[in-house]
Amino acid sequence: MTITVAGTKKEYEDGLTVDKLVTLENVEMPDYVTVTINDNIIEHDDFAGTELKTGDSVEFLYFMGGGC
Amino acid sequence: MITIRRADLYKLISHAKSCLPEEGCGLVGGRTEGNDRHIEAVYLLENKDHSDVHFSIDPKDQIAAIKDMRSKGLVQIGNWHSHPETPSRPSEEDIRLSYDSTSSYLILSIMDRDAPVLNSFRVAERRDVTKEELVIIE
Ligand SMILES: [Zn+2]
């Protein structure tokens, strides 16, 4: 299947789950990354149970915040 | 080295002042050339915390900004936030929450309202802070 990861089209096996994609894409500190599929936020508890479909667009967003 | 246009710097300063007493924040996009980074677009985003001592950016606002960058052929270079009453250096909290070692973290101090100071930092392992050489271009 073809999915778009951070704006780039990629080929992956059918049935790929979000937690596997996070590993395959070498996402650093995934606990602190927000994953979206087609602009919908996927909860961390749902990573293992969420399968990607062809045409999906995935983004990895680091938490951006701090203080002073 | 990281470059920012003077006009973009002024946008950050004016937005940061308009957010007072809260911290202002946003993202920066641009182009990379080897180790050099050139900021070509600044994004003024909502501080979801609406606080004078904290900031965070909504992932939905991040996505919108990143899509805009891509449409212009730019990449996300990092983020920026203001320090209304403290110097331009990462706080303990800034360091602890800098999860993206590839990002530039720009901090704009407006503690002296008439003499704002902008610095850019990289943070490795959420611990080791390096100041980047920041050049203002016309
Ligand atoms: Zn800060």
Question: Could you characterize what this model shows?
Answer:
The complex is a heterodimer of chains A (about 70) and B (about 140). With about 70 residues, chain A is mainly beta. Chain A has one domain: Ubiquitin-like (UB roll), CATH 3.10.20. Chain A has one helix and six strands; from the N terminus they run ββαββββ. Chain A has one helix at about 20-25; strands spanning about 1-5, 10, 35, 40, 55-60, 65. In chain A, a hairpin with a 2-residue loop joins β1 and β2. Chain B has about 140 residues and is of the alpha/beta class. Chain B has a single domain, classed as Cytidine Deaminase, domain 2, CATH 3.40.140.10. An eight-stranded mixed β-sheet of chain B has the order 8-7-6-5-2-3-1-9. Chain B is globular, with a radius of gyration of 14 Å. The interface of A and B includes residues 61, 62, 64, 65 and 68 of A. β6 of chain A pairs antiparallel with β4 of chain B, so a sheet runs across the interface. The complex binds zinc ion.
